[in-house]
UniProtKB/TrEMBL annotation:
Pfam families the UniProt entry points to: FAD_binding_3
Entry's EC annotation: 1.14.13.-
Keywords (A to Z) from UniProt: Cytoplasm, FAD, Flavoprotein, Monooxygenase, NADP, Nucleotide-binding, Oxidoreductase
Localization annotation: Cytoplasm
Name the UniProt record assigns to this protein: Flavin-dependent monooxygenase
Limits of the FAD-binding domain: 9-338
Species for this entry: Streptomyces glomeratus
Biological function: An FAD-requiring monooxygenase active on some tetracycline antibiotic derivatives, which leads to their inactivation. Hydroxylates carbon 11a of tetracycline and some analogs.
Amino acid sequence: MNSARDPRIAIVGAGLGGLTCARVLQQHGRSVAVFEREASADARPQGGTLDLHADTGQAALRAAGLLDRFRALARPEGEEWRVLDFADAALLAHQGPSAADGRPEIDRGQLRDLFLDSITEGTVRWDRAVSRVTPLPDGTCRLLFGDGTAEDFDLVVGADGAWSRVRPALSHAVPGYTGVTFVETGFDHCDTRHPDLARLVGNGSMLVKGAGRSLVAQRNSNGHIRAYIALRTPEDWHVAAGIDLGDQRAVRTHLLRMFDGWDESLRYLLSNNDSGFTNRSLYVLPAPHTWEHVPGVTLLGDAAHLMPPVGLGANLAMLDGSDLAHALVAESSVDDAVRAYESIMLPRSIEAAAGSAQGLNHLVPAATS
């Protein structure tokens, strides 16, 4: 195996956690390769807005030397939360932005681009899908790619999300359905095209809760509002309803029926959207999710601790990436570094998983009998 001074490190997945790890390693003069199955950085939309916490996401940005660039893009006003009554859209609770060290918002795509622009050109190997990972007897690890080729590394880091191809090298765990589905949609140029909706949502997020269903809307940059129709429902709800998810008119009609009795200003989210409806079933890994240490391979982010999307996942992934990179720089061997990292990350993720489960229950209360 290579010396600890120059280990061969591969990161599978060019998401926020993997890119944080790569950036911090390169700041310390370490070589790293990131393998990503997508063909390019703009192969697909990167999702909505993220609030970055001072002790996790912002701490990782500071370690990566990117905190000032983040602050230039972030929206502190996006911390605002408005909770409305479903029957008449009356304001029930309001929370404004906090102090300077709060949780400013940034579009996920903007944040990812910030990392991509900061790492050495060629670090990310696009269109390199990993099919399997095999730990080897000498403590190294082999990456098998979709095109049939293979490469060996001293460490393979699984940063490849919910359906990780790296995870099976460490754990038999697979994600399970939470009982909650988000149906996502969006609104463009809201201040001019959808001014009443813009007023309801405010500068940050709006939440409206009912029995077994909720509406969440969030400001993104450039006047865009992203909305989520959150449902406690069987995963195949559309099958039971006889709906083809590709039939947008049928989906709209069914959702409007589900939200019958809600204020018309809130039902506007279902009837006047600019983008289509996208069905997103929410999955989580079993909690606690742990594994016996295996030399040459580890996990970070959703690959290690997939949780409901209530504000912790991206923050923890970035902190994982920063912590792993720092351990690889500080420890005398790759194996010592991974053990040190896992001793911090795994207990932290167990606590966070419990908090995220509670957060999802708060966001989408169970229907009462």
